[in-house]
Amino acid sequence: MTAQVIDGKAFAARVRTDVAAGVAVLAAQGITPGLAVVLVGEDPASQVYVGAKGKQTVEVGMASFEHRLPGDTPEADLLALISRLNADPKVHGILVQLPLPAHVNADLVINSISPAKDVDGFHISNVGLLGTGQKSMVPCTPLGCLMMLRDHHGSLSGMNAVVVGRSNIVGKPMAQLLLGDSCTVTIGHSRSRDLPALCRTADILVAAVGRPEMITGDWVKPGATVIDVGINRVERDGKTRLVGDVHFESAAAVAGAITPVPGGVGPMTIACLLANTLTACCRAHGLPEPQ
Ligand code: NDP
């Protein structure tokens, strides 16, 4: 292996320490940032994520409000809950865990969250603000990726970035953020022609496809930085293992730097959620935002 492994777990711990310090400053003024997480249904992966979010929210000194609703909760009840959370001054951030059950219109639900409390950054107003380079709530996973890239490279200006995946929650906002940092950005997807050749043009390669170990070392430009967003559960030797969208061993033999799975992008996502909640709280109280 030649690549430097980017330690997202350690980086996330530093981000949480900074967030906790910001929370302590607010506490001295009698303000407690609050994050409400709404989970509908029994999806096992979502249960794990929501549990981890609640635990880390409390650990940094914030208030955590968990709303676990049955899978058959009517859409109208969910909208009514969000309306109450929008009006609750103790709640500064609202996250609705995705995916939602099929009978619920996810776009309608997400767009019913007050944009100021939309700590996932998925509300159409925040999407538009990000796309036009204005102050917004930035989606947590791409934000975590950007922070690791800036930490590793300093300036990203002029670098060729290829993002594989064009989802609204990862691929598209990732591309916007890289463009905002003056990368030359290409977005690949399932209809792209000769994706391996496209990826080999990348100084920065972000994989967000949801296909276990699809991107192998021969897709990677020597010395490139590879950010693996994928979280895939696979059966190996009778055990369930987590692997990314990148084949780690072969890619690490070629890349200059790479994020592992687990321990890369995943921990940064929750850390950025907490950072966004602190930001939302500061904005709500007209206080300076954390840097
Ligand atoms: P989506 O399924 O919404 O999007 C996947 C994207 O990958 C689509 O744009 C799709 O293209 C593209 N794609 C699928 N198959 C191929 C292929 N064979 N070749 C090229 N492109 C392909 O996934 P998400 O964006 O929500 O998530 C992506 C991955 O990131 C998943 O593994 C998910 O678990 C993980 N994830 C991790 C997070 C974290 O905290 N670390 C947070 C969120 C997601 P098309 O549009 O053409 O169909």
Automatic annotation (TrEMBL):
Tetrahydrofolate dehydrogenase/cyclohydrolase NAD(P)-binding domain residues: 139-283
Keyword Amino-acid biosynthesis carried by entry: yes
Entry-linked InterPro entries: Aminoacid_DH-like_N_sf (IPR046346), NAD(P)-bd_dom_sf (IPR036291), THF_DH/CycHdrlase (IPR000672), THF_DH/CycHdrlase_cat_dom (IPR020630), THF_DH/CycHdrlase_CS (IPR020867), THF_DH/CycHdrlase_NAD-bd_dom (IPR020631)
Residues covered by the Tetrahydrofolate dehydrogenase/cyclohydrolase catalytic domain: 6-120
Keyword Metal-binding among UniProt keywords: no
Pfam families registered for this protein in UniProt: THF_DHG_CYH, THF_DHG_CYH_C
One Gene Ontology molecular-function label: methylenetetrahydrofolate dehydrogenase (NADP+) activity
Catalytic reaction equation(s): (6R)-5,10-methenyltetrahydrofolate + H2O = (6R)-10-formyltetrahydrofolate + H(+); (6R)-5,10-methylene-5,6,7,8-tetrahydrofolate + NADP(+) = (6R)-5,10-methenyltetrahydrofolate + NADPH
Assembly with partners or alone: Homodimer.
Family according to the record: Belongs to the tetrahydrofolate dehydrogenase/cyclohydrolase family.
Protein's name according to its UniProt entry: Bifunctional protein FolD
Organism listed in the record: Fertoeibacter niger
Gene name in the database record: folD
